[in-house]
Design brief:
The protein is mostly helical and 445 residues long. The protein is built from 21 helices and no strands. It is globular and about 65 Å long.
């Protein structure tokens, strides 16, 4: 009987190991659409020798077809899961923002509001200080309004034209400056949804999380600010000749920034900007049909961005349905030992889930309770775990090419997401600061 009992135990262990291996294969398979997207997007671009050749939408089409193929169930059921993910209310809300942003940016450019704002800026700020000035402006606006999307919407069109006039035409650099600065405030603002989600899931007060966060976020921002000063000196052209400034045409941008700083909903901000531009355009001799043409071209220019947003949302819904996110969570938390490893696991877990959801707030909410359990087990202060959650999610969200902020910024600028990577200094420096805060004892205190 003892021999039979031992044989049964051995057989049971073998079955459990096989099940664990099978679950591991399924988890990797569930995540494989992300790998397909990255390999196809980067692989074709490298083979072509040009990162502008491969449209993001085509890469997402390929990955989406693969995700549908590996999902179990009838074809109609698989497509339904994909469609429900794409039709998520948050996704549709984001699409409305894209449409309004495209309309406002094109209308403001058409009536001369952007040129007037650029001329005013260059009459006040020397060209070599424009780059660090844009970074400071993005940091300040995002810290005030608590949203990186609103900051990108307000400042990217201005940054594009400043790059053309004062930055030697390096649009990607100026857009990257705004994008990096927008996540500074998103990470620290008391009214940011990521801050609220991180502090609530970890059970700490916002001011505690802010104090823990500012210790490494501010030094990172200062390092990048100095870096942008020297880059600005190198990239700036001689001070351009500034023409006559129509101060009335600056009003739409001042209105948009003022409303954003006041915490008004971003859709209301954009609609107000459109209304102000229409009114001024009428005053300065632009017909309604002509201005409608401006807005139409701006909205049509957002078509590719909207397509990518829908495809990525549907793809990520299939990944979650197939258990990809659960597999990631189980795998990253399976072998935690020691406080430092626990803190790194929280950061890696949040970043990995953020890659799979393309939404930093959802990533925090997804892993928040698990991170809190890990923190309590290994004695990590709640303010520290909240800071790690928020910071790691912002770092990843800032650099993934299918994140809403990256897509919006590059869509408004008309450039490829990959063109920004070489200039994304703030998330890189912030990542180093986060690692140091985990490794170095003085930071850990």
């Amino acid at each position: 009987m003892e021999i039979i009992s031992n044989f049964a135990e051995i057989l049971l262990d073998m079955m459990e190991n096989d099940i664990e291996k099978l679950n591991g294969y399924r988890g990797v398979l569930a995540l494989s659409p992300i790998f397909v997207f990255v390999l196809f997007y980067l692989g074709v671009s490298m083979l072509a020798g040009d990162f502008y050749k491969m449209p993001v939408s085509v890469a997402f089409n390929v990955a989406s077809v693969w995700a549908i193929l590996i999902t179990k169930g009838s074809l109609s059921r698989r497509i339904d899961i994909f469609s429900r993910g794409a039709a998520n209310s948050d996704i549709l809300y984001m699409i409305w923002i894209f449409i309004l942003a495209g309309a406002f940016a094109a209308l403001a450019k058409g009536i001369g509001a952007i040129d007037a704002t650029v001329n005013l800026t260059l009459s006040v700020i020397p060209s070599q200080f424009v780059l660090p000035g844009m970074f400071l402006a993005a940091c300040f606006v995002s810290l005030s309004i608590g949203t990186s999307v609103g900051t990108v919407t307000a400042l990217v069109p201005l940054a594009v034209h400043l790059a053309e006039v004062a930055g030697g035409g390096d649009v990607a650099l100026y857009v990257a400056v705004v994008l990096g600065g927008s996540f500074f405030g998103d990470n620290l603002s008391f009214i940011s949804d990521t801050t609220i989600a991180a502090t609530r899931t970890q059970g700490c007060r916002m001011n505690e999380k802010f104090k823990a966060n500012i210790n490494f976020a501010l030094p990172a921002a200062l390092v990048v600010l100095v870096l942008y000063y020297f880059i600005g000196v190198e990239h700036s052209v001689s001070q351009p000749q500034v023409g006559d400034i129509n101060y009335w045409l600056v009003a739409p941008y001042l209105l948009v920034i003022a409303l954003a700083l006041a915490g008004v909903n971003v859709m209301v901000v954009l609609m107000s900007g459109v209304a102000a531009s229409l009114l001024l355009g009428e005053v300065f001799g632009y017909g309604f049909v002509e201005m409608s043409g401006f807005m139409g071209s701006g909205i049509e220019g957002m078509g590719g961005l909207i397509t990518v947003t829908l495809l990525s949302a549907g793809l990520l819904a299939l990944i979650e349905h197939n258990g990809g996110i659960k597999f990631l969570i189980d795998w990253l938390t399976g072998k935690i030992s020691g406080t430092r490893m626990a803190e790194f696991s929280i950061a890696l877990l949040t970043g990995a889930v953020n890659v799979c959801t393309a939404n930093n707030t959802i990533a925090i909410l997804t892993v928040g309770n698990l991170s809190r359990g890990v923190s309590e087990k290994f004695g990590i202060a709640a303010r520290k775990s909240a800071s790690i959650l928020d910071t790691s999610s912002c770092i990843v969200q800032c650099v993934i090419p299918y994140g809403a902020q990256m897509l919006l910024a590059t869509g408004l600028a008309g450039i490829s997401p990959l063109s920004l990577f070489e200039y994304m200094y703030y998330p890189a420096v912030l990542a180093v600061a986060l690692v140091l805060s985990i490794l170095i004892p003085s930071f850990r205190k």
